[in-house]
Specification:
With 216 residues, this protein is α+β, with helices and mostly antiparallel strands. The chain has two domains: 103 residues, Phospho-2-dehydro-3-deoxyheptonate aldolase, domain 1 (Alpha-Beta Plaits, 2-Layer Sandwich); 98 residues, Rieske [2Fe-2S] iron-sulphur domain (Rieske Iron-sulfur Protein, 3-layer Sandwich). 24% of the residues lie in helices and 31% in strands. The strands form four sheets. It has a four-stranded antiparallel sheet with strand order 2-3-1-4, covered by helices on one side. Strands 6-7-8-13 form a four-stranded antiparallel sheet, with no helix packed on it. It is elongated, with a radius of gyration of 22 Å.
């Protein structure tokens, strides 16, 4: 279960929400980011009771992880719903309530973002470790660098586009076993023969989970 709040949500609000969740049998981990504040919940609590307990908090969404764009759309719709609720009776009389309500509801598929996919957890990724990930029709290498930084790069060497790169922890480089080319974690060529850098992908962390997003 994921609770999504505004990125500027106050510490008091976050603590109150977490307290209510814990009273219902959940354990929470808070992660603040530029796009949103997320409370990742684990436990055997009842999701229905949790939603009921947080119903009074119009600034808390009990939903799966959303992209920034989709989250903003959801927040706009909720604010509009609150502001127009008292006028829906009049709208019904005018015969326009149905299209308005249809606009306010989240679009089909919005809560299931198939372009935002969990690929690992922090516990799987020791420092300077790597993991091969096949996603969105691409083979990538997910790498944990120093200080808990994560990188994702295309795992196919750009020299001939056929050889899969290997992560060399001792050199902190991605090395091509076919012709000896090497790249750093930012995709830059550091040793020929390749001359074209690797495509890179943004790794997003939510609580202790790591996600990749389809670009474009």
């Amino acid at each position: 279960m994921i609770l999504v709040l505004d990125p500027l949500a106050s510490d008091t609000l976050v603590a109150d929400v977490l307290r209510k969740a814990e009273q219902l049998g959940w354990r929470g981990e808070i992660s603040r980011g530029e796009d949103q504040t997320v409370i990742g919940l684990t436990g055997d609590g009842d999701p229905a009771r949790l939603e009921e307990a947080l119903a009074a908090h119009s600034d808390v969404d009990v939903v799966p992880v959303l992209s920034r764009h989709d989250y903003q759309r959801l927040r706009v719709r909720r604010r509009l719903m609150t502001g127009l609720a008292s006028g829906l009776g009049l709208l019904t009389a005018m015969g326009v309530a149905v299209p308005v309500v249809g606009f306010l509801l989240p679009p089909k598929g919005m809560l299931g973002d198939h372009d935002f996919v969990k690929v690992a957890t922090e516990t799987e990724m020791a420092e300077r470790a790597s993991k091969v990930v096949t996603l969105f029709g691409r083979t990538m290498l997910l790498i944990r660098g120093e200080a808990g930084r994560y990188f994702a790069v295309n795992a196919i060497c750009t020299h001939m586009s056929v050889c899969r790169l290997e992560w060399r922890e001792d050199r902190k480089l991605l090395v091509c076993p076919c012709h000896g080319g090497a790249f750093d974690v930012y995709g830059n060529v550091v040793q020929g023969p390749p001359s074209i850098p690797l495509e890179t992908y943004a790794v997003e962390k939510v609580a202790s989970d790591l996600y990749l997003r389809r670009e474009g």
